[in-house]
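We were asked to recover a plausible sequence for a given structure. The inputs and outputs are reproduced exactly as logged, with field labels preserved.

PROBLEM: sequence recovery
POSITIONS: 76
GIVEN STRUCTURE:
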């Protein structure tokens, strides 16, 4: 998995804050929670939710055979 500070998925261009994404699990931490999610393109994401908001801190590439990247979207 790679770290990210993007606000969109680099694989499909979908906004990190947009739906749909599937929550796989939630885990409480001392400062908030960690969520494992899956983007619509299949990319596995680790999200941190705390006083600073929600952000994707790590993500994988989509599984092989997943939806192709959307054209015409900015990445990184």
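RECOVERED SEQUENCE:
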């Amino acid at each position: 998995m790679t770290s990210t500070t993007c606000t969109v998925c680099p694989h499909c261009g979908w906004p990190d804050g947009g739906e749909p994404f599937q929550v796989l699990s939630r885990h409480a931490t001392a400062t908030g929670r960690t969520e494992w999610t899956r983007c619509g393109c299949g990319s596995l994401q680790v999200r941190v939710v705390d006083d600073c908001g929600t952000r994707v801190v790590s993500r994988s590439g989509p599984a092989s055979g997943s939806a192709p990247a959307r054209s015409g979207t900015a990445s990184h």
